[in-house]
Design brief:
The protein is mainly alpha-helical. The chain is about 65% helix and about 5% strand. It has a three-stranded antiparallel sheet with strand order 1-3-2, sandwiched between helices. Helix 10 packs across helix 11 and helix 10 (about 210-225) runs parallel beside helix 12 (about 280-310). The radius of gyration is 23 Å and the shape is globular. The relative contact order is 0.10.
């Protein structure tokens, strides 16, 4: 005789005319099915990982497509499944640390409905480009902690974002940018001298609504300045960034900091607009962020040019790494298209966004 879970899945997941209510009713009426339902959920999570999805990706999709209750259940299943492994791939511990808290349990029927809806989403996730191994596969365990340079960069940028004294923020951020550039160059030089078998890696960075196109452009600018390539997947809400590990770390840190600064600057600009009698508009915000991303790209490119130009003996090494990154990105994404940014029609938003980019700290 088939189990309650199997009969619920047959009704709610595996047929063209799925009936979630019937499946949820079966599960709600049989408390003995809870353990098997949780086990099957962990299996679905594992299958998603094997198709290229990582914990942060699964949670992001649950939030985009479903609700907070589904996100909480996804986080619970991910914690349970990853707990089975002695070691985890790089970046996974950080993703687990950022998982949201589990939502309070509801009545049995509602909880069963949430589970079936989440499982249906997990089953329908397509295979995507993997950016690393899954738990249980052979992985290189990173040394505990992070490079001292990167820790100092994070600390400096955090202080720059928090201080209310602009000269201090500019000094802190300038130092952070200097350390970031030196760290990347030092890693490239070390790899060259030791003939290390270093190869480009990849990571995914969430690009969330609203104004995700402008945010994706900003991430692309940061990636390009750090000798990485970013490919945006608008349907799934993330960009895949390809590059060498030290550069990927720099992209993550700098993009996050600039996004915080851009949001704060936009809030101040909107306050000024309201004070002058103009209402906030979607086109103002879109134009502001588009201009910010465009101008930041120019500034980043200029800074990168200065840093590379001062390292004449390293130019062939850096050029070879850029070729390797391009090759890896094209291997992962043989077909890409260019997206046009729409809604950039507000002159005031564009002007103030460009001005905010000029004042951005960390450059």
């Amino acid at each position: 005789m088939s189990s309650t879970v199997e009969r619920a899945f047959a009704a709610a997941l595996f047929t063209a005319d799925a009936d979630p209510d019937t499946g949820a009713s079966l599960l709600a009426a049989d408390p003995s099915s809870d353990a098997e339902l949780a086990l099957r959920g962990r299996e679905f999570v594992r299958r998603a990982w094997e198709r290229g999805w990582q914990p942060a990706d699964v949670v992001r999709m649950a939030g985009r497509e479903l609700s907070a209750e589904h996100v909480g259940l996804a986080a619970r299943l991910i914690r349970a499944e990853t707990g089975r492994y002695a070691t985890l791939p790089p970046r996974w511990p950080d993703q687990l640390a950022e998982l949201p808290a589990d939502e309070p349990r509801r009545d049995r029927f509602s909880a069963a409905t949430t589970a079936l809806e989440l499982y249906r989403l997990l089953l329908r996730l397509p295979a995507i480009e993997p950016v690393g191994p899954v738990p249980g596969e052979s992985v290189t365990v990173p040394v505990a902690g992070e490079p001292r340079a990167l820790a100092r960069i994070r600390a400096l940028l955090a202080k720059a974002e928090a201080t209310g004294y602009p000269p201090e923020a500019e000094a802190l951020s300038a130092k952070a940018q200097e350390l970031m550039a030196r760290h990347s160059v030092d890693e490239a030089l070390l790899a060259s001298r030791t003939q290390a078998k270093d190869a480009p890696a990849a990571c995914r960075i969430g690009v969330d609504a609203p104004y995700e196109t402008a945010k994706a452009v900003l991430l692309d600018a940061v990636a390009g300045a750090n000798r990485c390539r970013a490919v945006w997947n608008s349907a799934f809400g993330f960009s895949t960034v390809v590059g060498f590990e030290p550069d990927l770390e720099a992209v993550e840190v700098l993009y996050t900091s600039l996004l915080v600064q851009a949001s704060a600057a936009m809030t101040r600009a909107e306050a000024e607009q309201r004070a002058s009698g103009r209402k906030r508009t979607k086109t103002f915000r879109q134009s502001f962020l588009a201009a910010y991303a465009h101008r930041i790209g120019d500034r980043l490119a200029a800074v990168a040019g200065e840093v590379v130009g001062a390292q004449g003996e390293l130019l062939p090494v850096l050029a070879a790494r850029e070729v390797a990154v391009t090759g890896r990105a094209e291997e992962m994404f043989p077909e890409t298209v260019t997206t046009r940014m729409r809604g950039v029609t507000d002159e005031a938003g564009w002007t103030q966004g460009a001005a905010a980019a000029e004042r951005a700290r960390g450059l």
